Amino acid sequence: MFIVELSFGDEPDRLAARPAHRERLQALHQEGRLVMAGPFSDDSGALLVFDVPDAEALAAIVAEDPYYRTPGVAVVGQREWSPIIR
């Protein structure tokens, strides 16, 4: 599993790009590749948990979604994670 942490700025492009991004997240969830995702309560960023086999699979997911390159969205962390309780 991998976690991705995003940081959000005030750029309006981010909000315009969010609906398409959320549709992609729903599809990834239905495919079993996204466990959970959501913004922090202060909307300063978000956390996403992916169930993918390796960093290359995660990189492909991020590369396919233009949201991660949208002004106002920054990937600030990306780590492999080994949960002990699921």
UniProtKB/TrEMBL annotation:
Q: What is this protein called?
A: YCII-related domain-containing protein
Which Pfam family is one of this chain's hits?
YCII
Q: What is the lineage of its organism?
A: Bacteria, Bacillati, Actinomycetota, Actinomycetes, Micromonosporales
Q: Where is the YCII-related domain?
A: 12-81
* Family assignment from sequence similarity: Belongs to the YciI family.
Q: What domain of life is recorded for the organism?
A: Bacteria
